[in-house]
């Protein structure tokens, strides 16, 4: 049964003040795993200790492009030590978005190295990979067409797919079987057209259908994330968990 995790970027304000205490709170709320976005100066031993204490699974780590290029073996060693096999490239800076062919070749090299040591490389999207094209394809599709499934898996951010004007359900179906991780999030479009991420069920994204589709497509984890929280971030993830429990009680095939 699919598990529910949290992208820790959501609660970065609390992690900066109390890393261990924040992870304890995440576990108390019912999240089963965490996806890291930095380790806040902790050693692998310290991270592993708090994971063991709380029972949280290290389901992945967002690892900057530059670190994947220039410090990959160090990142691999750290993540292996905490029990994580999934490294995700989370974002591409604007100055790099004009050289997609080079980025794709880099992903092949990084993915190959990961595969050689039992790690798995993912690419996590925003909206620009869908609104930009490479040849006749959206960049996101070009990436996953050019880099083999053996070297690169899909971490689909369903909310950004929606914001880009595409159907998340179609994208989930397209990458069925290649998408162990899905970012599960909600948003509202503000008056100026910009997005504001909100708690699950509080926005305009059909998050229940997205969860159903992801489960059908073989996802291992639904990963809750809010890029920015208008409310207290710990309260926000509690509100999202209330929605998740209600969804599960209504028949959603989630292990919560």
UniProtKB/TrEMBL annotation:
<dbReference type="GO" id="GO:0016853">
    <property type="term" value="F:isomerase activity"/>
</dbReference>
<dbReference type="InterPro" id="IPR013022">
    <property type="entry name" value="Xyl_isomerase-like_TIM-brl"/>
</dbReference>
<dbReference type="Pfam" id="PF01261">
    <property type="entry name" value="AP_endonuc_2"/>
</dbReference>
<feature type="domain" description="Xylose isomerase-like TIM barrel">
    <location>
        <begin position="23"/>
        <end position="246"/>
    </location>
</feature>
<dbReference type="InterPro" id="IPR050312">
    <property type="entry name" value="IolE/XylAMocC-like"/>
</dbReference>
<protein>
    <submittedName>
        <fullName>Sugar phosphate isomerase/epimerase</fullName>
    </submittedName>
</protein>
<keyword id="KW-0413">Isomerase</keyword>
<dbReference type="InterPro" id="IPR036237">
    <property type="entry name" value="Xyl_isomerase-like_sf"/>
</dbReference>
């Amino acid at each position: 049964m699919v598990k529910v995790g949290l992208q820790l970027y959501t609660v970065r304000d609390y992690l900066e003040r109390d890393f261990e205490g924040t992870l304890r709170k995440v576990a108390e709320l019912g999240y089963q795993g965490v996806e890291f976005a930095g380790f806040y100066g902790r050693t692998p031993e310290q991270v592993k200790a708090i994971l063991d204490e709380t029972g949280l699974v290290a389901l992945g780590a967002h690892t900057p492009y530059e670190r994947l290029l220039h410090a990959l073996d160090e990142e691999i060693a750290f993540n292996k030590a905490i029990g994580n096999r999934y490294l995700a490239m989370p974002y591409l800076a604007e100055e790099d978005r004009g050289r997609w062919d080079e980025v794709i070749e880099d992903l092949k090299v990084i993915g190959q190295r990961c595969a050689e040591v039992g790690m798995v490389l993912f690419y996590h999207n925003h909206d620009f990979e869908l609104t930009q094209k490479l040849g006749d394809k959206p960049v996101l599709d070009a990436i996953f067409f050019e880099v083999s499934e053996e070297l690169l898996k899909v971490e689909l951010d369903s909310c950004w797919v929606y914001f880009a004007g595409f159907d998340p359900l179609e994208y989930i179906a397209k990458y069925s079987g290649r998408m162990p991780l899905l970012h599960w999030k909600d948003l509202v479009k503000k008056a100026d057209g910009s997005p504001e991420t909100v708690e699950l069920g509080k926005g305009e994204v059909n998050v229940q259908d997205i969860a159903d589709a992801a489960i059908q497509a073989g996802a291992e984890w639904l990963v809750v994330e809010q890029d920015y929280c208008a409310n207290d971030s710990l309260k926000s993830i509690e509100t999202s968990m209330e929605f998740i429990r209600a969804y599960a009680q209504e028949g959603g095939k989630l292990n919560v």
